[in-house]
Specification:
about 280 residues, 9-stranded mixed sheet, signal, globular, Immunoglobulin-like, mainly beta
C-alpha cells in the first residue's frame, strides 16, 4: 500500500515537472524581409523582373532540434531595364542580415559594398521578439543605351513560428511554420513599362522521404500579398500595418522529387510585399 502511494506520488511529481517545463510561450524567431533595388536614375524603365526564392528544408522536429537549425532562402532578382541613354548608375537594396551579396550588370560583376547597418538589432528578451535588423547594400555599373540586365543575389534567413500542440500553456507536441518575406514596394518608385511582367518562382526542399511517393508531401504552402489599402477580403493584418490577402499559385508537377515549386505571374498589379509560409 505504501509502495503504491509512493509510486503514485512520484508519477504525479514527474507529470507535474514535465507540465511545468512545457508551460511557456510558443517559440518565434522572426526576421524582416529583404527588398527590391532602388535607384535615383530617372531615365530607366523596368520591362520585366524575375524573382527566384530557393528555400532550405522547412523547420521541423523538436524545439531543441529547431534551435540548432539554420534555414536560409537563396534570393535572386533579375531586372530587364531600358535606358534612353548610356550612363553610369548607382543602386542599393536592403538586407535582413549582415551577409555578402553579389550583383552584375549585363553579365559583368559589380563591386558590392559592405552592408551598412541601418537598424541596430535589439536583444531578444522573449521567444516572441522580432529581429528588426536591416542593412543597406550598394553597387554601381555602366548601363548601355537600350536594354540592360541587372541581377542581385544573396541569402536571407527564414523565420520560424512554433504552433502549440496540446492545451495552452502546456506543450505536448510542437509543429513549426517556416516563413520569409520580400518587399516589392521599392519597384513602384521606378518607371514601369506598360507591358511590365513579374515572374516569381519559389522552391522549398522536401524531406518527406519515401512517404512522399505514397502519400504526397506533408507540407502546406501559402503565399500572401500585402496591400496598403484595407480590404474586406483580407486574410489578416500584418505586424507593421497593411493587410495580407492569400495569392493563388500554380505548383510545378515537373519539380525534382526533393523539392516543391510554385510559380506566380504578375503584371503591374503586383502587391507591396510578399510573404510565403510553409507549414506541416
Amino acid at each position: 500500500m505504501i509502495k503504491t502511494i509512493l509510486l503514485t506520488f512520484a508519477l504525479i511529481i514527474g507529470i507535474s515537472s514535465v507540465a511545468t517545463a512545457n508551460m511557456r510561450a510558443p517559440y518565434r524567431n522572426e526576421f524582416q524581409g529583404s527588398t527590391e533595388i532602388r535607384t535615383s536614375i530617372p531615365n530607366l524603365t523596368v520591362m520585366k523582373e524575375e524573382l527566384l526564392f530557393a528555400c532550405d528544408f522547412p523547420y521541423r522536429g523538436s524545439l531543441n532540434e529547431v534551435l540548432h537549425q539554420t534555414r536560409e532562402v537563396q534570393t535572386s532578382a533579375t531586372y530587364q531595364v531600358f535606358s534612353t541613354t548610356e550612363t553610369d548608375a548607382n543602386f542599393d537594396f536592403i538586407l535582413t542580415v549582415n551577409q555578402p551579396a553579389k550583383a552584375s550588370i549585363n553579365g559583368i560583376a559589380s563591386t558590392v559594398s559592405t552592408p551598412v547597418e541601418l537598424n541596430k538589432p535589439k536583444p531578444k528578451r522573449s521567444f516572441g521578439d522580432t529581429i528588426d535588423s536591416s542593412y543597406r547594400v550598394s553597387f554601381s555599373g555602366h548601363l548601355k543605351k537600350g536594354i540592360n540586365r541587372i541581377n542581385v543575389s544573396y541569402s536571407q534567413p527564414m523565420s520560424v513560428h512554433e504552433r502549440m500542440g496540446g492545451i495552452y500553456p502546456f506543450f505536448i507536441t510542437s509543429s513549426f511554420t517556416s516563413t520569409f518575406s520580400y518587399d516589392l514596394s521599392p519597384l513602384r518608385e521606378w518607371k514601369l513599362d506598360d507591358a511590365f511582367t513579374m515572374d516569381i518562382r519559389i522552391t522549398f526542399k522536401d524531406d518527406s522521404g519515401w512517404s512522399k511517393h505514397l502519400f504526397g508531401s506533408d507540407y502546406t504552402f501559402h503565399l500572401y500579398g500585402r496591400s496598403k489599402q484595407v480590404t474586406k477580403d483580407a486574410d489578416y493584418q500584418g505586424r507593421n500595418g497593411g493587410y495580407f490577402t492569400e495569392i493563388p499559385f500554380a505548383k510545378n508537377p515537373a519539380a525534382p522529387n526533393d523539392s516543391n515549386e510554385i510559380t506566380i505571374h504578375f503584371t503591374k498589379d503586383f502587391p507591396e510585399q510578399l510573404k510565403a509560409t510553409c507549414e506541416y
